[in-house]
Recover the amino acids of this structure.
């Protein structure tokens, strides 16, 4: 009778060890890796059949880890994760174009045991020149329309003067220059914090050219503190060119167009100091602005300057409207450069954009009418439109 | 002790910058110069080591061991990173930019500028069309009568509320577009619609102003909290 009693703890111990032992899950199957199509590169699409142990009762698979290596027999390093149930993922971290990569998927169970799949690869990530996704067809259609309108209007503007309605802030630019000349104080021109490719910065360049030409004629000092290095070099060229065009190249002082620092708040500290020390009669804030807009405009107000601002940043416009004398709201800034320069390219662009707005408004009205209609009518009359615009 | 020194220095610099509220003064000028100098130095080092060196020397295969990923690749594959010739073009463009330091051939620096502006403008055209124009049109196509159902039955109050929201949204977008139409003078019905558009814009700006002022207040409170709590230990 004693034997069963002795066996009992042994059986219990065996069951305990058996139950607590880790049971690695079944790995994922049919792992495939292909370079992601229609992308800029650096991405690989991975697909697999999930581990059948995702739904097992004891210690199910709870997730997958994506592993990559430059050679099949080298050390694989984790580059991403996927949750249980996933059968695909786009690996995009730490992959570089033009290099071969091998991939494995590690299935993790709840008890921390894991199993690795077969190796897939090599795959060489590369960028695509063309995006063949249907959604991009709509963009191409839009681009053809918009660019077509603009080119047509540029051609038209070259033949005759096209009308652009007057904008209050634009007329104030000349007033500001005149005021500075009368007071014998400088003009401060700030092109914002955007880079040279931002539309608002490009518009600011145009106005800067106009302002510089006037200051050269009136012999008024123009100070241009710059935030971005490339913007700084362009501003230098613009102001120098404007002084040359005005026939006063000797009046150009390259020390008045200078780079401050490529950091937002130190830049603000420097410009605020300039405002209080130089006491400019007129401040221009044209371009892209962020949190510094109110700090600059408030300091300019304290210094007693007349202030003209223009930006396409929604939040910052509110600060400029509050603290400046004139504000060019959004697209008014782009229109300002066309209005001042009267160049056919710029005037034609504004006209082309106006045509685009008519189409925009027309399509919106068409869309609103279409959703009010009966389903059959909607499909019949607006099927193509909805497919094109709403991807339905 | 070192912590106390850095805290005192930070407190002094904070007060120095804030002294600008009173008027321009020598302490502000001192703090301003430190702020600009430290920032310029910091960004130079950051850009040199995180952008210029890895992008220039590593990716064109000169070193193959400067960035973490390149080092890992070298260790595992036993070969240098493949040469990224595009980066070599960027390096040449960068050197062309420096030509402006030589007045006689300074015009060369305009080519990389033209390349940067042209290429980014082209890239942005697609993004703007996709995110602004296409998405804006899609989001503005809303039913002017939007019946709302609560527990399976039509709720008149909810329907009117939702319909009014949609009408304001569609009306605001269309009148806003009219305001930014530059080819026609704002007169008559067109001028009236443009006036409604500018009202919509002003209400939006007002809301944005209030929201941002509140977030700025929280920044100020955080700074005062630093001065009183962390530095002077006046708050518990």
């Amino acid at each position: 009778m004693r034997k069963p009693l002795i066996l009992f703890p042994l059986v219990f111990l065996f069951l305990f060890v058996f139950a607590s032992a880790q049971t690695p899950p079944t790995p994922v199957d049919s792992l495939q890796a292909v370079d992601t199509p229609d992308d800029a590169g650096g991405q690989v699409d991975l697909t697999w059949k999930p581990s059948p142990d995702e739904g097992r009762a004891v210690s199910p698979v709870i997730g997958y880890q994506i592993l990559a290596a430059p050679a099949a027999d080298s050390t694989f390093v984790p580059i991403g994760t996927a949750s249980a149930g996933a059968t695909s993922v786009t690996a995009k971290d730490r992959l570089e174009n033009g290099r071969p990569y091998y991939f494995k998927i590690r299935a993790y169970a709840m008890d921390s045991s894991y199993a690795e799949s077969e190796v897939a690869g090599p795959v060489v990530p590369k960028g695509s020149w063309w995006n063949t996704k249907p959604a991009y067809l709509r963009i191409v259609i839009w681009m053809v329309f918009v660019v077509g309108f603009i080119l047509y209007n540029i051609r038209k503007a070259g033949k005759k003067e096209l009308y652009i309605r007057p904008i209050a802030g634009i007329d104030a630019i000349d007033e500001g220059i005149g005021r500075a000349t009368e007071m014998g104080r400088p003009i401060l021109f700030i092109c914002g914090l955007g880079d040279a490719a931002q539309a608002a910065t490009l518009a600011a360049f145009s106005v800067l050219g106009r302002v510089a030409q006037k200051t050269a004629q009136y012999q008024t000092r123009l100070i241009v503190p710059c935030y971005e290095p490339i913007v700084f070099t362009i501003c230098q060229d613009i102001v120098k060119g404007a002084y040359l065009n005005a026939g006063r190249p000797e009046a150009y002082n390259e020390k008045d167009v200078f780079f401050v620092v490529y950091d937002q708040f130190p830049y603000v500290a420097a410009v605020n100091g300039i405002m209080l020390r130089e006491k400019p009669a007129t401040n221009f804030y044209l371009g892209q602005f962020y949190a510094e807009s109110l700090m600059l405009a408030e300091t300019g107000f304290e210094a007693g300057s007349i202030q003209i601002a223009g930006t396409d940043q929604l939040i910052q416009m509110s600060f400029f409207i509050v603290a400046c004398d004139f504000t060019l709201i959004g697209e008014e800034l782009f229109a300002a450069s066309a209005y001042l320069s009267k160049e056919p390219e710029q005037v034609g662009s504004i006209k082309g954009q106006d045509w685009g707005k008519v189409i925009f408004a027309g399509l919106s009205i068409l869309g609103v009418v279409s959703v009010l209609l009966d389903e059959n009518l909607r499909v019949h009359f607006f099927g193509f439109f909805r497919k094109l615009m709403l991807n339905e | 002790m070192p912590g106390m020194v850095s805290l005192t220095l930070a407190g002094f610099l904070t007060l120095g910058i804030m002294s600008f509220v009173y008027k321009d003064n020598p302490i502000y000028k001192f703090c301003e110069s430190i702020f600009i100098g430290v920032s310029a130095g910091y960004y130079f080092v950051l850009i040199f080591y995180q952008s210029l060196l890895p992008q220039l020397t590593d990716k064109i295969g000169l070193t193959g061991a400067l960035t973490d990923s390149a080092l890992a690749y070298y260790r595992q594959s036993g070969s240098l990173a493949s040469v990224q010739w595009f980066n070599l073009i960027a390096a040449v463009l960068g050197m062309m930019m420096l030509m402006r330091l030589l007045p006689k051939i300074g015009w060369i620096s305009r080519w990389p500028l033209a390349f940067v502006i042209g290429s980014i403008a082209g890239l942005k055209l697609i993004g703007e069309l996709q995110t602004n124009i296409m998405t804006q049109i899609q989001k503005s196509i809303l039913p002017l009568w939007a019946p709302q159902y609560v527990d399976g039955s039509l709720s008149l109050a909810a329907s009117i509320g939702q319909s009014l929201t949609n009408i304001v949204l569609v009306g605001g977008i269309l009148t806003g577009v009219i305001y930014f139409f530059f080819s026609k003078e704002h007169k008559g019905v067109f001028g009236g619609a443009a006036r409604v558009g500018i009202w919509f814009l002003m209400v939006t700006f007002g809301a944005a102003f209030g929201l941002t002022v509140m977030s700025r207040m929280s920044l100020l409170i955080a700074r005062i909290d630093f001065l009183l709590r962390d530095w002077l230990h006046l708050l518990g």
About this structure: Chain B has two domains: 1-83, 143-236.
